[in-house]
Amino acid sequence: MKKLKLFVLSFTLLMIPFLSSCIDSGSDDTSSKPYYVFARVVNSMGTYLIADSGETLIPTSASLSSLASKGLKIDAIDKAYIAYTLVDPSQVTAQASKDPSDRTYNIELTYIASIDRKVAFVTKGSANDSISTDPILQLDLMTQTSQLYINKGYLIIAPSYYFYSKTHYFTMFNYTDQSFQAVSDPTKPDVLNLYLSHNDNSDNKLNGYLSSNVAGSYPFLYFMSFNINSILNSLPTTKSKITINVNIVKDEGTTFNKVYSTEYDI
Fold first, then answer.
1. 3-class DSSP assignment, residue 247
2. Are 102 and 180 found together in one domain?
3. Per its UniProt record, what Gene3D superfamilies does this chain match (predicted)?
4. 237 lies in which domain range?
5. What does the pLDDT read at residue 21?
6. What does the pLDDT look like over 143-179, one tens digit per residue?
7. Within 13 A of 15's CA, how many CA atoms are on the CB side?
8. How far apart are CA 236 and CA 102, in angstroms?
9. Both 76 and 137 in a single domain?
């Protein structure tokens, strides 16, 4: 088990460079090289993707049709984990001097999985406060220094938890009456407190699998994205940064007992 977990941790760390640079423009062998990135799906004047590193990725019609024939409904996806190869590697060198957000690549989309999860806006203790407190082991590193990775208002995490045969439900709770915390010191950012709800659906975890151990085969069970743009846009702050805290129930606890934090430019 420990060896498997170390392997998947290595797999996760290997992905980290893709979060800052989608394609190495100096590579000599890009025609068949697979790339694995987080991307947002855009369905406007056709379907394309925007990688977290900024590049626009245009899938071939054939690759979209192939995925659709397997049951994929790409128009229902917002944030995804994808795998692709380049159609024309010369596009890389031709656009190397451009800013990533100005680069466009034609790709063969070979894999796509939604990592979308829900965000709940509730008042703490109200009738619709359905937060669940089934524990998880931890949030694994998403960057070299943080368990919380945020790109253009999408918060992505990688919870390590045991599962067996049932669907687990993860929701990010924003308690609208108390999530924002103003900090009087003008040199320090204000604080946004969020709570990760985990409902294990009464799964038999004793004979289960660890989510981080199956990330290579089933990334949608491990990586989770929460669109918190509406929260960030409504914060009553004049500061340029916000400290975001994600609270979890760790190990065998029954109350929120672990906090992960990061600072984010707003």
1. strand
2. no
3. 2.60.40.3220
4. 116-265
5. 42
6. 999 999 999 999 999 999 999 999 999 999 999 999 9
7. 21
8. 33
9. no
The full length of the chain comes to 266
DSSP secondary-structure letter at 136?
A: B
Q: What stretch of H or E contains 62?
A: helix 61-68
Report d(CA 15, CA 53) in Å as an integer: 12
Cβ atoms within 10 Å of 133's Cβ, excluding its own: 16
Q: Are residues 164 and 51 in the same domain?
A: no
Question: If you ran DSSP here, which 8-state letter would residue 141 be given?
Answer: P
What CA–CA distance (Å, rounded) separates 210 from 15? Answer: 19
232 three-class SS? helix
Q: Please state, in angstroms and rounded to a whole number, the distance separating the CA atoms of residues 83 and 57.
A: 11
59 and 84 in contact (C-beta within 8 Å)?
Answer: yes
| H-run or E-run covering 6 | helix 2-20
Write the CATH number for 261.
2.60.40.3220
pLDDT at 16: 40
Q: Is it the case that residue 22 has pLDDT exceeding 70?
A: no
Res. 18: pLDDT tops 90: no
Same-domain pairing of 156 and 178:
yes
CB of 81 closer than 8 Å to CB of 112: yes
251: left (phi over 0), alpha (psi -120 to 50) or beta: left
Q: How many domains does the chain have?
A: 2
- Coil, helix or strand for 150? strand
Is the pLDDT at 95 greater than 70, yes or no?
yes
Residues 180, 191 contacting (CB under 8 angstroms): yes
Q: Pairing between strand 116-122 and 224-227?
A: parallel
139 and 177 in a single domain? The answer is yes
Enter the DSSP assignment of 129: -
Co-location of 95 and 202 in the same domain = no
Residue found under tokens 């945020």: 150
